[in-house]
Amino acid sequence: MTNRSVITGKPRRPEERPAEILAAALELFAEKGFSATRMDEVAARAGLSKAGVYLYFKDKTALLKALVNEMAGANISVARGIVEAHEGPVSPLVATILAFLAGQVRHTRFPELIKIVISESRAHPEVGQLYLDGVVRQGLPLFEGLIRRGIASGEFRNVDPSFAAKAMLGPMLLAVIWKTVLEPIGAEALDIEAYAAQHAQIFLKGIQS
Amino acid sequence: MTNRSVITGKPRRPEERPAEILAAALELFAEKGFSATRMDEVAARAGLSKAGVYLYFKDKTALLKALVNEMAGANISVARGIVEAHEGPVSPLVATILAFLAGQVRHTRFPELIKIVISESRAHPEVGQLYLDGVVRQGLPLFEGLIRRGIASGEFRNVDPSFAAKAMLGPMLLAVIWKTVLEPIGAEALDIEAYAAQHAQIFLKGIQS
DNA sequence: GTTATTACTGACCGGTTAGTCATAATGGAA
DNA sequence: TTCCATTATGACTAACCGGTCAGTAATAAC
């Protein structure tokens, strides 16, 4: 009848629990980092007890794995869509992709997750592995392909596609670290979109024939 | 007479203790990360007991601070030397500096320290602060100055020096993360010097008039 | 209603480890 | 030789926290 727990006042909705827990975990991980986040806090923010969390997730790492998986999948498929849908000269794609990434850095929790993966991959190699397989090994070839297309069409010089892809992404990684590590301790804010645009311009001119 | 501790067999040399302890800490931090390194291990590797370490360093964080300070000072002063000693056209300096950085990434513990700073700066903001003040706020202006010189001399286009400096360093940060995070979990090795050279070529062409 | 099932919780435990402290060894000075 | 400042240590503790579990509340089934 009541469908509500007497104690918490919260509705019971087992199907939504995992998503609620993950949302709470993502917020807390982003705010305080993975190790500094207590399972009790995740539970409290999700509106149940710590033991309740373990009904839905095997352990703390499972939370992180689920989050990495989720965000990896989402981002990569969008990026792939952008790249594969594009026809004609690839040059404009460089700026488009970098602007897309800038938006992700600015408006999503992607940067925080990357930082957490960097921090935790030694202690939790499965998490690093997930990121390597789900993001790096999906994303880099995408950009390498883009470079190759440009070389094939004569737009780009004969650069090493693997190196060039990394040189294209490196500055965005710097933006991620700037935002998640340096800004919180007092570094001047970085205008990520403008930065990405400037980088796109330099990079494009740098690889053009 | 003997000048040796009966128990450890090691010579007593209080003046060298701090350096020995730091060397041990650096090795271990690089191998296993900061939090995973136990004070007992640092002590053992340095050849004394844990309590002994606390005779020379206030706490665990003090070890990390000392290491960051040390390496920051060393690297920045060398880089400054390279940049300031250079006369004539600045274009060649871009490749020189990037090659120098590639060497540092490949042959020193700098990458591991950066990774640790990234990982620990939320829990130990003083460490992050040290890095921000000692490396970022020393290093970036150096590169910005280089860009400005190039613009003033007409070698470079009128790019934003702050953005351009970050775009120049970003790919090296990617190399750092690649080496310290991805390679240990199975990513293919990155030829850092070749990568830096390719990036230098692209970047230089990208900012030239 | 009564029973069975699912969802949930409070209290607890075991392992871990930074940092402390009372005490001891050391070696130079007198 | 004796002293004592310095250098060192083993043993300890206090706090923390992931994960477990015995039991309870809510819902569904009959």
Which features does this protein show?
72% helix; 9 helices; Arc Repressor Mutant, subunit A; disordered N terminus; mainly alpha; homodimer; Tetracycline Repressor, domain 2; 209 residues; 2 domains; DNA-binding
Descriptive account of the structure:
Chain A has 209 residues and is mostly helical. The first copy, chain A, folds into two domains: 17-56, Orthogonal Bundle (Arc Repressor Mutant, subunit A), CATH 1.10.10; 60-207, Tetracycline Repressor, domain 2 (Orthogonal Bundle). In chain A, 72% of the residues lie in helices and 0% in strands. In chain A, helix 1 packs across helix 4 (60-85), helix 6 (110-120) crosses helix 8 (161-182) and helix 7 crosses helix 8. Chain A is elongated. The N and C termini of chain A lie far apart (72 Å). Residues 1-11 of chain A have low confidence and may be disordered. At the A-B interface, helix 6, helix 7, helix 8 and helix 9 of A face helix 6, helix 7, helix 8 and helix 9 of B. The first copy, chain A, binds a DNA duplex (30 and 30 nucleotides) through helix 3.
The helical percent of chain A reads over 70%
Assigned CATH superfamily of the largest domain in chain A: Tetracycline Repressor, domain 2
The tally of beta strands of chain A, per DSSP, is: 0
**Structural class designation of chain A:** mainly alpha
- Mean of the pLDDT scores of chain A? 93
What letter string, H or E per element, gives the SSE order of chain A?
A: HHHHHHHHH
Largest interface: A-B, 49 and 49 residues
Gyration radius over CA of chain A: 20 Å
Low-confidence stretches of chain A: 1-11
